[in-house]
Amino acid sequence: MNTLLEKIKRLKVVPVITINDAAHGAPLAKVLMENGLPCAEVTFRTPAAVQAIKNMRAAYPDLLIAAGTVLTTQQVDQAIDAGVDFIVSPGFNPKIVTYCQQKNVIIIPGVNSPSLVEQALEFNLTTLKFFPAEASGGTAMLKALSAVYPVKFMPTGGIGLNNIAQYTALPSVLVCGGSWMVPNSLIDSENWDELAKLVAEAANI
Ligand code: 3PG
């Protein structure tokens, strides 16, 4: 397995972050680094994402950073320029996958059906996001998919403290993604202490 994927596997969960103010990047990275989750999937759902990633990377060179919700090749370029370690997309877009492979950056695209897994296999991708996890059948769907396909999944979407153990118990699950430990309201209000508690709790699963 690729070294980066090995590192991801060692994490309990990948925090999925939506950031409104790029200045929050470095303090949030500090919370993640100091509380046992040295990884951030920063979603390209806000204009602040690119600069937030740059700020995180400058402050913590060892933080694993993904660009999430990547929908265009332009965003792939912006993410690489900002210093991400890998790219995540919610769906399987062959154009994005091809572009990332040309750029030699790891892409973890989203899938939630046998047909999409097979499309991903055509691109030699065997680590896939399972999104939206709960809405797509949750662990029952994952078990059915992994009985057929030699792939590892990063389930995301609807996962929290109440159900993460059901996912991490599956051998096909590399790591889970989730946003519950990095809620927007706490980031916007700069409540780093409360965020630290939630991140530490998630890291101790
Ligand atoms: C994602 O982009 O991966 C999801 O929005 C995260 O899902 P969650 O908010 O249900 O954890």
How would you explain this protein's 3D organization?
- Helices cover 44% and strands 18% of the residues.
- The longest helix is centred in the last third of the chain and has 12 residues, at 192-203.
- An eight-stranded parallel β-sheet has the order 7-6-5-4-3-2-1-8.
- It is built from ten helices and eight strands.
- Helix 5 (94-103) links the parallel strand 4 and strand 5 (106-111).
- The chain has a single domain, classed as TIM Barrel (Alpha-Beta Barrel).
- It is α/β, with parallel strands linked by helices.
**Bound ligands, each once:** 3-phosphoglyceric acid
CATH topology: TIM Barrel
The largest beta-sheet arranges its strands as: 7-6-5-4-3-2-1-8
Task: Report the span from N to C terminus.
Answer: 24 Å
Strand content: 15-25%
- Helices and strands, in order, run as HEHEHEHEHEHEHEHEHH
Approximately how much helix is present in the residues?
40-55%
Number of domains: 1
